[in-house]
Amino acid sequence: MGLSQASQTFPTKTWKKTFYTLWLGSFITGLGFSMTMPFMPLYMETLGHYSTAQLSFYSGLAFSATYLAQAIVSPYWGSLADRKGRKLMCLRASGVMTFTLFITGFAHHVWTIILLRFIQGSFSGYVNNSVAFIAGETPNNHSGTVLAEMQTASVSGNLLGPIFGGAIAGIWGYRVPFWLTGILMGICFILTLVGATEEHFKPVAKQKMESFNSIFKTIPHKGLIATMFMTTLFIQSSLMSISPIISLLVKQLMHNQGPISFVSGIVAAAPGFGTLLAARRMGHTMDKIGPLKVLTVGLMAEVLLFIPMFLVTSPWSLAGLRFLIGIGDAALMPAAQTVLTLVVPRKAFGRVFSYNQSFQAAGGVFGPMIGSGVAGLFNYQTVFLATALMLGVNFILVIFARHHQPQKQA
């Protein structure tokens, strides 16, 4: 099986209804996540007296805890998804997140937040599971477009969340966005329960399930799949490296004066504007010229954009560069996911995407810890140079993988 995109005869009405439902669910998940996460350091700052290094460390740990848990448990959830279905995984994620996020709003110590984040990570993964869900329901000749559209769901939520969250936190405090997010995830659970249909899933009994190793041996282009796993790790690391400290950097750039929460929200949301504008075009481009070419160009552009961030002196120049980063983001994760969709047999989607989620979760661990570590040792802006280096390594890996694929697949 190569990177072919042969048409399939799937009932249009059914898979499109499921797509719209999962799109809305992913939007709500992205909205809820971004209403709280950019302001996590500022929330934690209200729970005690911490130095800059301590606050950077606790923030990085809080961000990483969720992804560490995901990296550990994702293979188990992936195996269960291949036996029980992807819809159940989406319900599991949205259901648990409803409670963990709501309870976080009552925390009175940073370690309570870190523990709740770890529990959340053990059961979360709505967006990733929704991608595997719709990938199994979508005809191959629509894969690039549909997965790019799925990217716009969480991105649109990430775009609006920081603005709403910043305004709400500025008026009612940092606890209220967590309570509201918990309610939103409850709505997400109900929407998925009643609106998503998994028609093309064929459950396999545990004792009859073919091992992942035996399936993997039959898949061509194993090196390409491994490269996509590593690409997912590096991309997620780059996305998360600045997340634990972005509000602290904005606070520094504003000299601790003015509407810091609101401006932090705008800076945090800036990449979403770029991704939202470019995602549809990137999806169509992937369907025409192939995801590997789009991924290569996107990585090169990201490297060139992260370097000047080292020199920012105002939150608005930072927001402008992050907007351009968002355009590049529209080409990255969807392209890697599209490659996997096209080379992996459907019976292994759950497990392959779960392993991919483990690598994404690992990136969610390494990114914040690298960002907070570099910020603690040097300064906030140095994080951008470290991120550019990570993406440069990723660019080299993808170039190497392309050169070892047949030309028609590159």
TrEMBL record:
Keyword Coiled coil assigned: no
One of the record's GO cellular component terms: plasma membrane
Cleavable signal peptide: none
Annotated Major facilitator superfamily (MFS) profile domain residues: 18-406
GO MF term (any one): transmembrane transporter activity
Subcellular location field: Cell membrane
Keywords, in A-Z order: Cell membrane, Membrane, Transmembrane, Transmembrane helix, Transport
Topology of this chain in the membrane: Multi-pass membrane protein
Residues spanning the membrane: 20-43, 55-78, 99-119, 176-196, 224-246, 258-279, 291-311, 323-345, 383-401
InterPro entries cross-referenced by the UniProt entry: MFS, MFS_dom, MFS_trans_sf
PANTHER family, A to Z: MULTIDRUG RESISTANCE PROTEIN MDTG
Protein name stated in the entry: Multidrug resistance efflux pump
